[in-house]
Amino acid sequence: MTVLVHNQYAQALDVPSILRSGPVWAAFPLLMCIIYPVHYLKAEAATAYTDALVELGLLVLSLVVGAQLVGVVSDRPYLAVMKRAPALGTVWVWTVVEVSWFTGVVGLLGVAGWAWKRGHWA
């Protein structure tokens, strides 16, 4: 995601400095705190209740992070976008990929509806 943001704003791509910088590592703690419990609940403690709870939790996370990403990209200057968008985008894409097809579409439509209601989508 960092590479895409740098290309969008025509910034020089210095891979070693990108790997040492904060945007690459900003999503790492959140992903580590989420990936293990989600996969544990899906594999080890799999019941209809835990599957539904995981889907609901990831849907809520997808809606919150997606709305933040759209807000950052729409309202902030490009330096703020370059700092926050890669981490938010990584978490958002992960949540959409991790859930079922229906839940992913609901999450994407929820973020699109929020963006339309807030005037980010003309």
Annotation, overall tally of beta strands = 0
Largest sheet: none
Low-pLDDT stretches:
none
The geometry reads as flat
Could you tell me the mean pLDDT? Answer: 81
Topology pattern, helix = H, strand = E: HHHHHHH
Radius of gyration from the alpha-carbon trace, in angstroms: 16 Å
Structural class: mainly alpha
Helix count from the secondary structure assignment: 7
N-C termini distance? 25 Å
Helicity, as a percent range:
over 70%
Instruction: Note the beta-strand portion.
Output: under 5%
Describe this structure in words.
With 122 residues, the chain is an all-alpha fold. The chain has seven helices and no strands. Helix 5 runs antiparallel to helix 6 (78-98). The longest helix is centred in the middle third of the chain and has 28 residues, at 48-75. It is flat and about 50 Å long. The model has no long low-confidence stretch (mean pLDDT 81).
Strand-helix topology:
Layout: H1 2-8, H2 15-20, H3 22-26, H4 28-43, H5 48-75, H6 78-98, H7 101-118
Short descriptors:
mainly alpha, flat
Summary?
With 122 residues, this protein is an all-alpha fold. It is built from 7 helices and no strands. Helix 5 packs antiparallel against helix 6 and helix 6 packs antiparallel against helix 7.
